[in-house]
Specification:
By secondary structure, this protein is α/β, with parallel strands linked by helices. Helix content is 48%, strand content 14%.
């Protein structure tokens, strides 16, 4: 499939505005040349400029996804205005959770009839015991455990700080506990310095960006996702797909993915003590934790597979194709 890079940057000053106009014209030419029946934009600038370009290019149907809660736009008048104009040129919005759908109705004042929900889907892989043994050896986990895994980039809203606040209570009860942290980002060096100054070097392992989250999750006794805002978290789904119990914050679509007490535990936003107690509750009862993990994987197989997601998108496109 051909890929074209338009090179759009955020609107900041006259120069960037002129550059954006040039990008819009390039996008119009690309769309006209390919002649699609549908243009589907996923993230903010893609669905805003995509709607404008699609209409200028004469595309019959425009679809826009909403992948997160709209907090980043709350007080940004220009973003909200551009979005409202783009929405008027968009036929259908697709949210990735009911929480996001409600947020779109609230913030964007879109008719509920114009919004559909298609949950994210994740790949279901089979356990690879040999790969797991190799990773345990590489990470020197032979005499350590239990293992807590976090798959999240080091950005502020992921709230790694909450987990680090809870960590002393976890280590007090499980002195050989290991915290595996997969991800990268601007706050990574801050937390690395915190680990060094706190003497937690044997406990916390920074693993950087990982192509396969399932590798790291295969080592875990519990996965933790302390983020304070989520639309519908793939990290949560990936933990469930790996048959791991998940402790996450009750925000966004997390309560739609996780069945409280059955596939994982949910805690209030920003509550380090509650997060720590939930992780301890899982670690203290390995049999219940194993049952949670198995129930989580079964839930992903039933509701959140990538095949189910693709089929739902295909159904939507087919429906659009039958419209007059």
């Amino acid at each position: 499939m051909p890929v074209s890079v338009v090179g759009l940057r955020q609107l900041r000053g006259l120069r960037s505005t002129l550059d954006a106009a040039g990008c819009l014209l390039r996008l119009v030419r690309i769309i006209r040349a390919s002649g699609p029946d549908v243009v589907h934009g996923f993230l903010y600038w893609a669905y805003v400029f995509g709607a404008f370009a699609a209409r200028l290019a004469g595309v019959p149907f425009v679809v826009a996804s909403r992948r997160s809660l709209g907090y980043f736009k709350e007080s940004r008048t220009l973003l909200l205005l551009l979005e409202r104009i783009a929405n008027s040129a968009t036929d259908l919005l697709i949210a990735n959770s009911e929480a996001v759908r409600r947020d779109v109705i609230r913030q964007e004042r879109v008719s509920p009839a114009k919004i559909r929900v298609v949950y994210n889907g994740v790949q279901l892989s089979q356990p690879d015991e040999q790969r797991r043994r190799e990773l345990r050896a590489q990470l020197n986990l032979a005499d350590r455990g239990p293992v807590v895994a976090v798959v999240a980039n080091f950005i502020a809203y992921k709230r790694h700080d909450i987990l680090f606040s809870a960590l002393p209570a976890l280590v007090a009860e499980f002195p050989t506990l290991v915290l595996l942290m997969a991800g990268e980002g601007p706050l990574e060096s801050h937390f690395e310095a915190h680990v060094r100054s706190s003497g937690l070097g044997e406990t916390v392992r920074f693993l950087g960006a990982r192509a396969e989250a399932s590798d790291i999750l295969s080592l875990a006794d519990v996965a933790v996702h302390p983020s304070e805002t989520e639309g519908f978290s793939n990290a949560v789904l990936e933990a469930m797909a790996a048959a791991k119990p998940i402790v996450a914050v009750r925000v966004g679509g997390n309560a739609e993915a996780i069945v409280e007490g059955e596939t994982g535990l949910l805690v209030p936003v920003g509550d380090a003590a509650a997060l720590g107690q939930a992780v301890l509750a899982v670690l203290r009862n390995p049999d219940a934790a194993r049952a949670m993990g198995e129930a989580g994987r079964a839930r992903v197989v039933r509701l959140f597979s990538i095949e189910r997601m693709v089929a739902e998108y295909e159904q939507i496109y087919d429906e659009i194709g039958t419209r007059d």
